[in-house]
């Protein structure tokens, strides 16, 4: 047993430790962004209880939005000012920035980015000072229904020293909603299933369903139950049920079915979706096809596959060798033991015969 531990078990443990032990390092998290921002609400603000801009507009009538930027440290901080439209992320959140590729929405006209322009793209603050930055809001010449939604982004500009080391971007977002009449804008009632298609998305094998909110209103608090069914066999091959999803006005949700490490199968399928909130229920359905060529291309190009790590292969081989060795040892010992038993029986038999004489 000592030899077994010395020559077999201890080496195995050593090999395992090489594969399983990893170094853990922590990087310092710089949470001091260097400034704060606050909205200065205009007289056109529709709801004074909100800290974001919710302003009333008239066609072509310009107005100025003001934001107070305050330094929170002695060192100089450069702040970049940007304007972004509201979009809907694949996780069902209202984001501010460019939509996912393929999720652009043609129903969005005269967006926030075309209406608001900062007087300066950057501002410097230091030594705890305050500065007021101005942004010009110019509504379209024609009337519009519902709301336009977006955000003002105030992003810290990294200095030359930190550019090489800092990967995170620190920023503040101030929401902006414009409306001509101030009517309710969270009661959107239209959803459309535009298309369903297989894709290789950031290396993942997925099927994406593009669901559109064509109205200038928000749709929120959605529960979505979705199944993909094989059209030939009626067998459900994939489900995705989610809750608390929202849509930005005039936006498209790229809803994802992730195949993980499994291969994407070819065939003709039906996507069925039941979507509901406290206002309405939508039943959406669309057939789609994954060709053999599409499936093979996506499966071959994806890095997400069933692969066995090298250390598992090594340990498996070692355990296999040990198992075979143990079986041989047991078989050999048993054979030897059987021989000893036969010899012992013969001796006893001879002794009996001698005793009988």
From TrEMBL:
Source domain of life: Bacteria
Cross-referenced InterPro entries: WxLIP_HBD, WxLIP_PGBD
Signal peptide start and end residues: 1-27
Keywords (A to Z) from UniProt: Membrane, Signal, Transmembrane, Transmembrane helix
WxL Interacting Protein host binding domain mapped to chain residues: 162-299
Keyword Membrane assigned: yes
WxL Interacting Protein peptidoglycan binding domain ranges (all copies): 35-156
TM ranges: 310-332
UniProt-recorded name of the protein: Uncharacterized protein
Species this chain originates from: Vagococcus vulneris
The organism's taxonomic lineage, starting at the top: Bacteria, Bacillati, Bacillota, Bacilli, Lactobacillales
